[in-house]
Amino acid sequence: MTREKLLTELKRAFGVHRDAVTWAVQDRQPVAVVGLLHFRGEGSQVQVWTGRAWVAVRHLGELSQVLADASALQHAPTLDPA
After folding, report:
1. Are the C-beta atoms of 54 and 42 separated by less than 8 Å?
2. How far is CA 73 from CA 14, 20, 45, 77, 79, in A?
3. pTM to 2 decimals?
């Protein structure tokens, strides 16, 4: 996905404006950096980096859920030994 296509998708799905994005490259593909979030395009999908994997997101609700799930994984409950 090109920078322009990724930017268009970020604006459509999340309301991200051009001036909020800085750019990086991974494996010769553009990565949009918005605050602390990293997005890339994979085919026709936008993916966000969770700290462990790239996960496809289509709208703000999915983004919120993916980030909440990733956060929960970082703060696992304390378990009793088996």
Report:
1. yes
2. 24, 28, 24, 9, 14
3. 0.82
End-to-end, the C-alpha distance of the chain in Å comes to 47
- Tell me how far apart the alpha carbons of residues 33 and 40 are, in angstroms, rounded to a whole number: 9
Four-CA torsion 67, 72, 73, 78, nearest 10 degrees: 170
Q: In angstroms, how far is CA 73 from the centroid of its own chain? A: 16
Positions of the chain with pLDDT under 70: 72-82
The CA distance from 11 to 13, in Å, is: 6
Paired tokens of 40:
């890339």
Residues in the chain: 82
- Residue carrying the six token digits 């994997």: 53
